[in-house]
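User: Need the bound-state model for nicotinamide-adenine-dinucleotide:
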Amino acid sequence: MTLEGKHIIVTGAASGIGRATAIMAASRGAAVMAVDYNDRVEETADTIRAAGGTVIAQTADISREDDVKAFTERCVAEFGILDGLYANAGIGGAGKPFLELGPDDFARTLGINTVGTFLCIKHAVPCLVSRRHGSIVCTASVAGLRANAGGVDYSASKAAVISMVQTIAYQLYGTGVRINAICPGLIETGMTAGVFTRARARGAEDRIGQINPAARYGNPEEIAEMACFLLSDGASYVNGQAIAVDGGLSASHPWVFPRKQ
Ligand SMILES: NC(=O)c1ccc[n+]([C@@H]2O[C@H](COP(=O)([O-])OP(=O)(O)OC[C@H]3O[C@@H](n4cnc5c(N)ncnc54)[C@H](O)[C@@H]3O)[C@@H](O)[C@H]2O)c1
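Assistant: Bound-state model below.
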């Protein structure tokens, strides 16, 4: 599971899953470019540096191609090489009932979650293919697999990420570059803070995440573990997959939530 000698871009690194992955990857030997449009990405970089890791903090908007091109070029210029990309940055969607969704809502959600992810892949691929080695990991969601884990715009944006991963795996045929998606279940992060705050305010914290067989929600480090594995050479034969890390949530047919025993 070592990432020694790897040079990796992690997007969405100011918070949640991206922050946890940037810190974990650096602790396992990777030099990390931590990207986010929130300048709190500097705090992630400070944490990595304090632990003796190598990091570049970069503010950028992944939905803007000029930004993505610039940070990819900076990464290669400063590290001299690129071995991996974790295209993780995303937003939770408009949060509206579907009949209230408009084209602008869709454009914003897909513009970041789908097109932004695509742009990060597009600009990383030539660097990876030129070395005939590398790993791309994207954060999709269980919402991209089945219903009831997000709004229509969010779920569509994540289903599209899974489709891109499957399609691009074949576009990268024979190049030595792998691409996979992680589909997290409910993880406590900045994106889901409202869910947790509201549940705690109602005294219903013990009900959060109860509908999966692990009977709990996840934490960002549990997704970071999968991301670091997929970025490592240990995952050398894992390609084109959408891997759920969800406590077992997506394994089920519909079921009746059991009474407490
Ligand atoms: N938390 C969950 O339960 C959950 C479940 C499934 C999937 N996900 C996915 O995980 C990924 C990470 O989210 P998180 O849960 O850690 O949330 P988070 O809000 O804590 O972190 C997301 C980060 O992405 C950044 N970001 C958003 N849009 C950006 C843009 N255009 N350019 C650059 N940075 C941008 C944000 O500033 C933030 O720091 C997202 O793609 C999200 O859809 C989260």
